[in-house]
Design brief:
Strand content of chain B: 15-25%
Shape of chain A: elongated
Helix content of chain B: 25-40%
Shape of chain B: elongated
Largest sheet of chain A: none
Strand order of the largest sheet of chain B: 6-7-8-3-9-10
Number of domains of chain B: 2
Largest sheet of chain B: 6 strands, mixed
CATH topology of chain A: MetI-like fold
CATH architecture of the largest domain in chain B: 3-Layer(aba) Sandwich
Oligomer: heterodimer
CATH topology of the largest domain in chain B: Rossmann fold
CATH superfamily of chain A: MetI-like
Order of helices and strands of chain A: HHHHHHHHHH
Strand content of chain A: under 5%
Structural class of chain A: mainly alpha
Radius of gyration of chain B: 26 Å
């Protein structure tokens, strides 16, 4: 990279809209769409697994195996079918989020205390209403903790998609920076990617505060919750989920 | 009225939880299901709101077969209080209480207004309305649980060991509160507990279950304590049932003696004469308002200068007292046992001494009630 300065501000100024802005927007899109798709699949799948517990071990193994497949391999595997469209990145990334989201949804539902569920039945909630008004809201803190891990992981993984030429900040790093031995785009790409991860994580924390006001300032409740989870999740908790749960307790 | 006819619950693995149960639960009264764990009392309770379906048999509420009713709809007409309160952690206290009104489609303002009414009824502070359950103590949570069960004013209230998870002091106050509420509301209450004292205190009638899901005895508390049908029931209600049964007899049956009560301004010499004449080793010293001050023994009187007033002598603490008009024989016996002089001090409602009851007199009173039926099915005052 010779004796160029590490950052050339004039390059940034000249290229702010394109490619920097374009790549950033692509990156946001490539990250958010899989997270949303992941959520749309993980919530019903988690509900089903929590309801019919015998299903959960095989589903859990399934999403973990998917997670173990290297992303780059999955991109190339899909390329013949989806071509150079965003779907080539979106489909694998969506599948990866499941490995984090499904266990968190299931754990969240498992930790609804039995006496709370019993009380809801006895009050006369229909099963669907009980799920929507009682069980899912109580599962929310753990589910959001998983969502935070999934969001940050996805934002960082989008960069890999650029290796296949699918856009995103990775493309900025690879095409504009690495291939041309030019450090400025590499640094810009990294900084923006990290900032984006921070921003999304911050928004999710804010969302959790708004959606779960009852968890605020309750050390006692957090301790109860973690104890309940240890009971419910013994043996089936993935490392990724553990991280998520620990985060939930920290907030 | 709730009736069980030939109710049996058999699980697929062959376990029988409830075995051919026939029982009538009268409307407006409190019926307690009591028994050791695994006797089917909770299972039986949960059949009433169809949380458990019987294998065979018929249950009716107000004459209607509960199988003809949609379970969710049926449950909204039956209040339910669970052991750990089962409050919804994500809802405020007021919204927890308004749960069933919300389900019944009342508007939010009306449901919440009703919830606030109930908060007052069960003794919660209005400023607790916007709190979340984890911010309340166990006893307060249980009050919320009771309020929530009463929110839609159901005629039937099912209570599944509601007070067993709180400490004894809180439990006693919750029990007293329930007695007060029931006197006002006259609900058909079915209450499950494994604590026979709680059953005796709260129940108009008690159903004792034996392991294997059979009904051993259904009776009023007093008759249950007086005549347990067999050795199982007798063993379950405990060996102090005789003493417990005394709660059903009023202390009014006693005739406290007044000749061993002296004012504290009486001279020791005169007091000693009184003691000798009564043949009692202890005199009770009272102040000018007839409030008890303490016991003085004949030895102390004999050793004292006859001219001093008894109030200035060394008095022995009088311990517990019982209220003659409102307490039970059990309270009087308790006061006598705990008294250093072995005699119970009976007072009136204002705390003025009525008289003294010696253990021998208590003994004959207890003898005389041993055979007869209690005058009342309700325990005399809540001394549990």
């Amino acid at each position: 990279m010779g004796d160029q300065p590490l950052i050339r501000w004039d390059w940034i100024a000249r290229n702010w809209d394109d490619p920097v802005g374009t790549r950033l927007l692509e990156h946001i899109q490539l990250a958010l769409v899989p997270i949303l798709i992941g959520l749309l699949i993980a919530v019903p799948l988690g509900v089903v697994c929590a309801r019919w517990r015998w299903l959960y071990p095989s589903v859990f193994t399934g999403v973990n195996i998917l997670y173990a497949v290297p992303s780059i391999a999955l991109f190339f595997l899909l390329l013949p079918y989806t071509g150079f469209t965003q779907w080539t990145a979106i489909i694998p990334l969506s599948l990866y989020t499941l490995a984090i989201l499904v266990p968190n949804v299931v754990d969240g539902l498992y930790q609804v205390p039995q006496h709370v569920r019993q009380a809801a039945i006895a009050m006369g909630f229909s099963p669907l209403r009980r799920l929507i008004q009682v069980e899912l809201p109580i599962a929310l803190p753990v589910a959001i903790a998983g969502l935070r891990v999934a969001a940050v992981a996805t934002i960082s993984m989008v960069s890999v998609a650029s290796l296949v030429g699918l856009g995103g900040l990775g493309q900025l790093i690879l095409t504009d920076g690495f291939r041309r031995q030019f450090p400025t785009p590499i640094i810009v790409g990294i900084v923006l990617s990290v900032l984006l991860a921070f921003l999304v994580d911050g928004l999710l924390v804010l969302m959790q505060r708004l959606l779960t006001p009852w968890t605020r300032g309750s050390e006692r409740a957090a301790r109860r919750t973690s104890a309940a989870r240890r009971e419910a999740g013994a043996g089936t908790t993935a490392p990724a989920t553990d991280t998520g749960s620990r985060r939930a307790e920290a907030t | 009225m709730i009736t069980f006819t030939g109710i049996t619950k058999r699980y697929p693995d062959g376990t029988i939880a409830v075995d051919d149960l026939d029982i009538e639960i009268p409307a407006g009264r409190t019926t307690v299901f009591v028994g050791p764990s695994g006797c089917g009392k909770t299972t039986s309770l949960r059949m009433i709101n169809r949380m458990v379906e019987p294998t065979t048999g018929l249950i009716t509420v107000e004459g209607q077969d509960i199988r003809d009713r949609d379970p969710a709809v049926l449950r909204r007409s039956i209040g339910y209080v669970i052991q750990q309160a089962g409050l919804f952690p994500h809802r405020t206290i007021v919204d927890n209480i308004a749960t069933v009104p919300f389900l019944l489609g009342w508007g939010k303002p009306r449901a919440r207004a009703r919830a606030r009414e109930l908060m007052e009824l069960v003794g919660l502070q209005p400023e607790q309305a916007k709190r979340y359950p984890h911010q309340l103590s166990g006893g307060q949570q249980q009050r919320v649980g009771v309020a929530r069960a009463l929110a839609a004013d159901p005629p039937v209230l099912l209570m599944d060991e509601p007070f067993s998870a709180v400490d004894p002091v809180v439990r006693t106050s919750l029990q007293d509160e329930l007695i007060r509420l029931q006197a006002e509301l006259h609900k058909t209450i079915v209450f499950v507990t494994h604590d026979i004292d709680e059953a005796v205190k709260l129940g108009d009638s008690i159903a004792v279950f034996r392991p294997g899901g059979k009904l051993a005895q259904l009776d009023t508390p007093e008759r249950l304590l007086a005549n347990p049908v067999d050795s199982f029931v007798e063993g379950f209600i405990g060996y102090d049932r005789g003493v417990r049964r005394l709660s059903f007899f009023p202390a009014r049956l006693l005739t406290p003696r007044t000749d061993t009560v002296v004012g504290d301004d009486v001279q020791a010499g005169r007091a000693r004469e009184l003691a000798l004449r009564s043949g009692e080793p202890w005199l009770l010293v009272v102040d000018g308002e007839r409030g008890p001050r303490g016991w003085v023994s004949t030895e102390t009187l004999g050793a004292a200068d006859p001219g001093t007033v008894v109030g200035s002598l060394d008095l022995v603490d009088y311990g517990h007292v019982f209220t003659v008009e409102t307490d039970s024989l059990r309270a009087a016996l308790d006061a006598a046992v705990l008294s250093p002089a072995g005699r119970a001090v009976g007072v009136d409602a204002d705390g003025r001494v009525v008289g003294v009851v010696a253990q021998s007199e208590l003994g004959s009173a207890i003898w005389s009630v041993g055979a007869e039926e209690a005058p009342t099915a309700e325990p005399v005052r809540s001394d549990g």
